[in-house]
Amino acid sequence: MNKKLIILLCFIFLTTGLFATNFLPRSFIHKKNPLPDASLTKADSSHKFDALHYTINLQLFPDNESIQGNVESQLELTALEVDSISFELEQLHVDSVFVDGIETDFSYDSSIINVRIPPGYEMGDTVWTNVYYHGFPVLSSDGYGTGIHWQNYIYTYADPNGARYWWPGYDHPWDKATTSMNVTVPDGNLAASNGILVEEIDNPDETITFCWQNTDPIATYLISLCVGNYLTFDQTYEDIPIKNYVYPGHLSFAQNDFSCIPTAMTIFEDIYGEYPFQKYGQAECGIFSGMGGMEHQTMTSIGSGLITGNGTYEMIFVHELAHQWFGDCLTPLTWKDVWLSEGFAVYSEVLYVENTEGYQAMCDYVQSSLHSYYLTWAGTTPYCTYDPPYSEYFTPATYEKPASVLHMLRLRVGDEDFFEILNTYFNQYKNGTVITQDFINIVETVSGMNMEDFFAGWIYGSGIPSIEYYYLRNVNSEDSQILFRTKTVSPTASQFEMTIPFVASDGDITDTILVNTDYEYQTSQHNTSFADTAQITVEYDPDNWILDRGDSEIIPELQSALPGDNMVFLDWKEFSDETLTSNWNYSIFRKLSTENSYTKITEVSDTTSYIDETVQNWETYDYVITANYIDGADNWQSMFSNELTVTPQLFPMDQGILLVDETKDGSGTPISPTNAQVDSFYSDVLGFGNYDDYDYSSEGSPDLAILADYSTVIWCDDDFDEKNISQEADKLAALVMNGGHVAISGWKTADYIPDSFYSNLIGKTSTEIIADVDFLGANSYNHPFTPIDVNGDILPSWQDKWGYIATFSETDLQTDNILYRFDSYSGNYSDQPVGLINFNPEFDFNTIVLGFPLYFMEKSDVTNYYQMVYNYFYPIPGVDDPPIEEKIVLKNAPNPFSENTKIIFQAKVSNLNTISLKIYNIKGQLIRKVSDDETAFDKDDSNYSFVWNGCDKNDNKQASGLYFYQLIKDNKVLTTKKMLLLR
Prior knowledge:
By secondary structure, the chain is α+β, with helices and mostly antiparallel strands. The protein is 17% helix and 34% strand. The strands form twelve sheets. Strands 23, 24, 27, 29, 32, 33, 35, 36 and 37 form a nine-stranded mixed sheet that branches. Strands 39-38-40-41-48-47-46-43-44 form a nine-stranded mixed sheet, sandwiched between helices.
């Protein structure tokens, strides 16, 4: 059943025209669907017979839109006892009923005619009934508008269950019969119907009767009439007559437009089998407002708006013709399997394009008219092809989606088996009714494959999957081997199996590789003819075979390349899938940006980071990595990751604190402060110390060289809208990695910070914005930070609360990483983390991120916060403060010194592994740490000592100046001393 019409409310024009002039808008191919809440009201009737033949004798009275007639039905009884049978007839008048020529009792409730069968009939007997009726036919109210349409050119439309609106019969698709149609109309008209026109009778009352004989089984919804002042013209295809009925003014247009029919018949006969009926024809009418088509058996109804003379709607004519094989000859047993009609007709369009325009035109047509059209129509709704709701029989879920499935089936089984499947399926069920399992059985028999999972997902299931894949090359093999790992990712409970085409090329050789996949990662290994698989490119489905919601190639991902002083810090995401989680390592490649090729510099395992200390400051380097899966002697290497470029540089960090104000200069309203308001706020809360400031909105993005001059960067962002932290986070991370400190706060800012920043500096976490105005402030439980409360004077209407606060997932965080927790007015968000801090044994506390804006908090609380931040970032208590523990001696000699000094300590310790010694410069930067390892210290009697040579951990000599050194036990400072270095 091809419902081709304009659905005005969802007119999706993919293109206009056909073939060389693009393709037809798909909405023209669909029959009209009812309103979403429409439903069919149908009385149940027992089916005690098999309809063999209907003779429909009907007179039309156009002047008053009434009919009169009788229908003689030849029935074979199929039940042991039959005392009555039923026919459907809607809202007409039944005059009398006869059984084998004898008038009999009946009942009629304006929907079902119950006919009494006299005693004596047995199962297998043939009985003739004759129902006489008349009246004023109405159209169905189910949204489909089936019945007789009284226009200048009268036509009928009965799809899906509308024959009952103009003649009595058993109106269900599973009971097909042959027919005779004898229709009487006023003189001056022609009447087109199913089968062969065997006689025209001129009647004395200025009417004419047209007698049509249809000798092939037909479903009731395919029986039709078109009546009007037609002109006719004939076409021929071998011995099949083609008779067309068109409006007089459209004759030449139709002759041009319908010229595609013999070509299409040739193509479909070659693929499916012989044309199955006595004749073919097309009758012009106003069906679907003149812009649709309906595949009435042997006499398709064509909307008058489709006949233009320029072939614009060629694909509709082709589609309706294809229905003669699928839908008319092979009829779905029930409407659950409507896709067996519509999906096959749509795919016939594809085959027509392929055979008339070539392979590439077919690929383009599949993409635009099937895949893209369906996905655009469906949106995110997961439609099911099998057993659609009554109101959705004729949508892209039963048209384009199953046509795409047939295209993917063709790829899976191969052309030879696919076309044998179509031919076998058609010829085995010719003139019968079919269900989905019938087709599956043919597919499995011909292909020898188990296709249960394929059809379970694509036809019986809902949704459209996306595809994930990656491929590896075997660097230890001489056979140029490639290994694919692929899987489907479903948005629904349905699981999808399919074949995916990949095209590999090295510029000279192209190789198509077919990979079978399903909902779990599948491995597919292939030998190729490439001389060097490192030089190939692999393209996913370039010819548009696959219906999917997107494909994702999984490659190693470098997250950051952070510059340091003669070093580069690299980190990347772990590369594995759920079934290959071990035996992975990573190769790191580097080149100068001026060079063309990469050199492998190292290979690492059991880590996702690496520090390259073989670089020079101010040289620019490019980095990529590969992931390598080791399987015995095979080393399967991925393609290169994304490329990151980095320039190592100095980090003097001798300028103290820099306040970077990213806040947009606002209007001065409560939630949009001006630069002056923000500057004044931070001047007050940071008044306890000196700092430089940098205004982002006026000065733009700060260069890393500027940030590198400071040992601490305070980053604040107190406006609601503009967020730039995502492009600055790597600079801040580089500062921390080189020994600096960063404190970030802002309104939603934390939600824009890349995951790599958190995972490298604090711990793995994710953020969520709590939009509710529910934030009273923040409480600190794990650190000696005082609470921070909302300043209710700034926006009184919010009643001392604040909204759009970023919270952090604590699943992978350590307890000590949580600096602040949500103080919730409602209690719904109580204690969710809203502030994070990191303690890195190499660098102490160095990174703080708050999920709320400080400008809107109580000023005194913010001052206390920054004082505590300063103490954490610079953990230097007063020089020569009294020791925390008694009987602790810490000194150095000589002091001052020029080259070396011996640091000596005495302490009550049972285990030196709990002791560490740290040396800081005057800016509070940690420049040397003596590991809490017993071998790091020399022991002389009760004294432990360490000789410091005035160098940092990289053996870089330090400048003259004041230095501090601390003795630490169990992460607690025992005492601090000062020493003077003079060069």
